[in-house]
Amino acid sequence: MTKTLILTGGSQGIGQKTLQKFVEQGWQGINISRKPTQLPGVIDLEIDLSATNWVERIEKELLTRLPDSSILCLIHNAAALIPDRVGMIDPVNFEKTLSLNVIIPSTLNNLLLPRMSKDSSILYVGSTLSEKAVPGCASYLVSKHAVLGLMRATCQDLAGSGVHTCCICPGLTDTAMLRERCQHDEKLLEILKKISLAERFVEPEEIADILWFAANHPVLNGSVIHGNLGQRES
Ligand SMILES: NC(=O)c1ccc[n+]([C@@H]2O[C@H](COP(=O)([O-])OP(=O)(O)OC[C@H]3O[C@@H](n4cnc5c(N)ncnc54)[C@H](OP(=O)(O)O)[C@@H]3O)[C@@H](O)[C@H]2O)c1
Question: Which domain holds residue 216?
């Protein structure tokens, strides 16, 4: 049976490396993001998941391509990070963040679960901030805690379906999201590297490897997997 990865946010960073990994291993790869991945062998659906017509486009451009039932791995990877703090959270940005990071993954589950046969998986990309807190990114932090909750609900509600689920939580990973968050301040980036016990950032390929492992090992169900090189506690 064909195995297909459907991943959001594959145009760069962790998502792009994940698509590359799965395609190298013989899976069909489908990316959903605004820009294309430009990876050979990947089908790019250039869709803005924040646009009002995204469900219609998924129905037309994705569901019509899929067989009635096949082994799918759905990875919820696209996310927004808009810096903010409690007391000054812009409700519009809060809603946007919750929508892209939590509600849209849930809607994609609704759309794709009927097509998932046994041995399929739903993997959520969480964050260290799915379980911890730091100042200055309140909306994102709340959304990443919610992602973990959605994964746990997925595990319980899909019992007996043969579909397994995990939340993979990257630590600080060397991608555009991290560099933009630090406004490309090299001094700050050097300081942040020291949060990890290895004194370096996680590479996006390392998270791709964990996602690959999780997709292929149903024993990991309801699991929260931190990929952060170990983090300094004080
Ligand atoms: N980097 C880190 O340090 C870190 C740490 C912990 C967790 N994470 C998590 O890891 C995941 C990947 O992050 P990353 O670091 O690889 O980020 P990234 O390089 O900024 O990539 C984010 C991806 O999300 C897509 N995206 C954003 N808004 C979208 C929209 N409206 N519609 C469709 N796609 C959209 C982007 O594609 P387009 O711009 O082409 O639409 C891009 O491919 C996220 O869930 C993030 O929270 C990252």
Answer: 3-172+204-227
